[in-house]
Amino acid sequence: MNAGEIIGVDLGGTKMLLGVLDSESNVLWESREASTGQTEDELVDLLVREVNEAHSARPGTAAVGLGIPATIDHGKGIAISAVNLPLDDVPIRDLVSERTGLPVFVDNDANVAALAEHLYGAAKGTENAVMLTIGTGIGGGLILGGEIYRGSTGAGAELGHTVIAMDGPDCQGNCPGRGCVETFASGTALGREGLAAAEREPDSVLGRMLADGEAIDGKAVTEVALNGDPTARTVFDLVGRRLGVALTSFANTFEPEAIVIGGGVIAAGDLLLDPARRELEARALPPMNRTPVLAAELGSDAGMIGAAAMARIELEESEGGGG
Amino acid sequence: MNAGEIIGVDLGGTKMLLGVLDSESNVLWESREASTGQTEDELVDLLVREVNEAHSARPGTAAVGLGIPATIDHGKGIAISAVNLPLDDVPIRDLVSERTGLPVFVDNDANVAALAEHLYGAAKGTENAVMLTIGTGIGGGLILGGEIYRGSTGAGAELGHTVIAMDGPDCQGNCPGRGCVETFASGTALGREGLAAAEREPDSVLGRMLADGEAIDGKAVTEVALNGDPTARTVFDLVGRRLGVALTSFANTFEPEAIVIGGGVIAAGDLLLDPARRELEARALPPMNRTPVLAAELGSDAGMIGAAAMARIELEESEGGGG
Q1: Nearest residue of A to residue B126 by CA position?
Q2: pLDDT greater at residue A318 or residue A84
Q3: CB neighbourhood size of A206 (10 A)
Q4: How far apart are CA A247 and CA A274, in angstroms?
Q5: Which of A214, A249, A255, B166 could form an S-S bond across to A209 if both were Cys, CB 3.0 to 4.6 Å?
Q6: Does the beta carbon of A174 lie under 8 angstroms from any beta carbon of chain B?
């Protein structure tokens, strides 16, 4: 009956988005809950409660896919460590499966977002695509040969921790590195550079906002830049070019058919992408210098859609494999 | 009869190494010719002559694999561009196949070296391995999911052109980039840093060699460092750490089971690898900070062995595929 229905969960640092999707990725049922400020147990309880509710609403649901912003051991279904969620070596696949009676598959949130863009979005029709999800940090997803590339245990594709300045500043969170692209081109970096510009140019729009006590974060810089302010646009030019340095390394490495940029910062669109494209075009080896750099198309639904698609693929493989 | 025999050719910038290998990679016949100073036509003539001679010696030879230090269109068998060989958009697969009557398969030299180390050398038993071949420049090879990863047309895996310093010096050859790891950690860079050290410390072994008019190149720095000279070892420490920055990005991206370093500079062994390992361990995300960094095991035969292995795989796939 409903054998083709799958629950996809995007378990973000601030909210949990859950959907029941059919095989054509139509959303049949949806829920959204806050995920902040919970303990590990409370988070798992929330997840189980919402999955069970969705399963009651759509009784034919066949499996659950979880996309989590954490280092994942894909084979064992463990969330090893996360920056923005209280998940530390949690066997989340088995915990949720035991309490819902459904097969559960777990993957990194950026991996499943890349899968969603590959199947239904900007990277549709490609065999090899690189995706960056740029928000507070920078997540990476790789589609190679038409499949998610996860590394040896599932912890790979940490593209935000590609070094673009070997003597650069310390990276954030649990990264012991320096000069990672995440420190230069994340939403956090955008806010930091916007603040620096506001201090440098007190008469600019950003400068006056700062004087008025308004927060200068990535979102504020984006709004001001979209309204045409030249100072805010200079900030995007700087951040976009630094992004383009990392894209050069990805293009030279993967020779992908597309690089897709998603996450909160893509609200700025070509203000961010154009300087990145110019840098890639100037720096990468031919033919990689012609790699298209595209805005993600699925917006904030990419994680949920991709988590369901990942679970569908894993379920079919486990059934097809006779295991 | 000899259906399992394949000709592997490593067409390097200075010499061409050709071998006839059986299915266990034993070398049954071998030739070595200089490849410098030839025109494109002369190079193809040399290649055809040597392949025909090998084919006469081993009449059951089933195919030819060519490993070439060039950007390759793998599907079309074209050498698009090379730094050290006169190959510019040459349909080398068809040229050699027509004049030898044998099926020919073409790949990048670093790709096939990686395949050789994966099948028979330091990366044996891995599913995912990164290989750098460090000589005059830095070539890259990727084994992902047990197979060579080439990018969308075969031009990918240019790991030497991973940027580690976004404002760094211009790269060499046909690379329009800046601050690529090739500019910091190739044999050329080793010689340059050795020369700088010799000038800075005229009383050191390197300094006295310089005063005596001896060439300070990568090979000289290696010999002096292996003899225990502290100044030359400082050069390896610097170059090794810069190499380690790029390895950090590769580890975070691929979560490989091994990173293998080959090419001329590996004569220095742990003098180069230890500082690289320390940098990787300090900078990469867990669990990628524990990625083993290994010396290649097949030495200068890796290209020839890998070219034959690549052709064997391609031949089996083309036969198995019914095409």
Answers
A1: A152
A2: A318
A3: 27
A4: 12
A5: A214
A6: yes
Q: By CA distance, what is A178's nearest residue in B? A: B283
Are the Cβ atoms of A287 and B150 closer than 8 angstroms?
no
Closest residue, chain B, to A153 (C-alpha): B255
Q: Which of A53-62, A285-294, B80-89 has the lowest mean pLDDT?
A: B80-89
Flag whether pLDDT at A3 surpasses 60. Answer: no
Burial of B297 (0-12, 13-18, 19+ CB in 10 A): middle
Query: Taking CB atoms and an 8 Å cutoff, what residues of chain B touch A177?
Result: 248, 252, 283-285
| Helix or strand holding residue B21 (H, E) | strand B15-21
Helices B302-320 & B109-120, crossing angle to 10 degrees? 90
Contact B152 A249 (CB under 8 A): no
Distances (CA, A) of A11 to A106, A107, A157, A249, B282: 11, 11, 19, 30, 30
**B151 shares contact with chain A (CB less than 8 Å):** yes
DSSP structure class, residue B261 = E
Identify the structural domains of chain A with CATH numbers, from first to last.
6-109+300-320 (3.30.420.40), 122-297 (3.30.420.40)
Residues 69-88 of B with CB under 8 A from A: 71, 80-81
Beta pairing, strands A129-134 & A258-262 = parallel
Residue B148, strand partner residues: B143
Q: Is the peptide bond before A287 cis (omega within 30 degrees of 0)?
A: yes
Would you say the ipTM is above 0.90? yes
Q: Which residues of A touch B71 (CB under 8 A)?
A: 285-287
Count of pairs with CB atoms under 8 A, one residue in A, one in B = 158
B150 shares contact with chain A (CB less than 8 Å): yes
Residue of A nearest to B140 (CA): A253
Q: Is the model's pLDDT at B321 over the cut of 70? A: no
Cα-based distances in Å from B318 to B18, B83, B311: 23, 31, 10
A259 compared with B84, residue with greater pLDDT: A259
- CA-based nearest residue to B221, from B212, B213, B230: B230
Amino acid at B303: G
